[in-house]
Amino acid sequence: MNRKLVILLSLIYVLFMAALAVYYFTHNVSFKGTVAIGGIICGAVPLLLALFTKLQFNLPIVISYLVFLVGSQYFGSILGWYGLGWWDTFMHFVSGAILAFSGIALYERLIHRNAGDEISPWFVFLFTLSFAALGGVLWEVYEFSSDQFFNMTLQGGGNKDTMTDLIADTIGGLVIAAVAGIRTRAKLKKKT
Predict the structure, then answer these.
(1) How far apart are CA 64 and CA 186, in angstroms?
(2) Do residue 36 and residue 115 come from a single domain?
(3) Domain endpoint, select from 53, 80, 107
(4) What is the pTM of this model?
(5) Are residues 63 and 93 in the same domain?
(6) Of 17, 131, 136, 155, which residue is least crowded by CB atoms under 10 Å?
């Protein structure tokens, strides 16, 4: 059931962005059309993974990812909400939280089931926070590279924009990492 829902939701987003791409390119609005093409690619990621891999998806993470794409690509770039000033920072906070949840899901899949009884809450905290912060750093590398190689203006605010984005990503990750560490500590205390 989760797999079918992931396919359906991803397909809806991809088709929505494809319709926007056609509309904007036929109306000579190339920036919004390019954002919509990016939306097709980003929205296709969970769709392709669901169709061509045996990975089991954490449905709340996939839904959060798609909601984030709507907020970032559609509301932020296409409708111009990034011009509000605070929207970009809010989206980075949300992406930090989503990355932290993804880090937790990855962590839970990678550890041996019995190892969870002996894992330090500090390790869970640091792994989750590091995963979220790394995701933020990689995004800023993408923005910087796009600006340098393709004459884009993704880092319109320069160093201040980059640092604000990284701080927001880190705070979003920090909130979820703290909860994950506390939850792990509570589980360990419960077992002793």
Answers:
(1) 26
(2) no
(3) 80
(4) 0.86
(5) no
(6) 155
